[in-house]
């Protein structure tokens, strides 16, 4: 079994003291490939440098999260453009809109989103998308650019049926996290996940965030890490009635096709 965690914030400072151990534990749990998320120019650069340390196993994205959209200045796009040329950088993002927090103004978020979708078109890279409480505006901007973008994934999907249907109608891939393990907020996903076509379902931890609530035993530090992707896989398999190995194979194949990753050999 070879699993791909398509969204892991491995540059987060909570991993500073044991990052190599985290990677090794993931490998032991069959999570052989990690896509390290970029959220600012600085983080994207650090993610690319970290990915270069384990070619074929670590990859990264390059982008500016909507929380940081106000930081996007005239220097950022050229810097991201250079990162996109690196072989280990396999997508643009995390980019999109977040009208729940509004840490950056909605105008700045829209401007940053447009610019990064253009960057994905220019570099023929897929996009790693974030959307919260901004569905209609998000779809409107995405539709302006989607014809020139090869592939896009709705990272950490937590929405309702209408949102899922809209994304699927546009051809988006769907990333499922440990949110599906949350009996308070994620129960609706347990039914919706069966509606995702086999060829567009991918899995992610979004670690160190979103530790699965039903994980036993829980780590004392409450930190999520990529080895727990195996737990998410098991929950999704239960929800969809799929064989565990079959689900592992199809989600891994989807991730390899989406990010154009090399195939790992046993």
How would you briefly describe this protein structure?
This protein is an alpha/beta fold and 266 residues long. It is built from 9 helices and 8 strands. It has a single domain (3-259), classed as TIM Barrel (Alpha-Beta Barrel), CATH 3.20.20.140.
Q: Indicate the structural class.
A: alpha/beta
Under the CATH scheme, the architecture is Alpha-Beta Barrel
Amount of beta strand: 15-25%
Q: Poorly predicted ranges (pLDDT <50, ≥5 residues)?
A: none
| Global geometry | globular
The number of helical elements comes to 9
Q: Determine the CATH superfamily.
A: Metal-dependent hydrolases
> Oligomeric status of the shown chains?
single chain
Average pLDDT confidence is 96
**Secondary-structure element pattern, one letter each:** EHEHEHEHEHEHEHEHH
Euclidean distance between termini CA atoms: 9 Å
| Total domains | 1
**CATH top level class name:** Alpha Beta
Helix content: 25-40%
What name does the CATH topology carry?
TIM Barrel
Largest sheet: 8 strands, parallel
Q: Would you report the number of β strands?
A: 8
* Cα-based radius of gyration, to the nearest Å: 17 Å
- The largest sheet has its strands arranged as 1-2-3-4-5-6-7-8
Describe, in plain words, how this protein is organized in 3D.
This protein is of the alpha/beta class and 266 residues long. It has a single domain (3-259), classed as Metal-dependent hydrolases (TIM Barrel), CATH 3.20.20. It has nine helices and eight strands. The chain has an eight-stranded parallel sheet with strand order 1-2-3-4-5-6-7-8. Helix 7 (187-192) links the parallel strand 7 and strand 8. Helix 3 packs parallel to helix 4 (106-123) and helix 4 packs parallel to helix 5 (135-145). The longest helix is centred in the middle third of the chain and has 18 residues, at 106-123. It is globular. The N and C termini lie close together (9 Å).
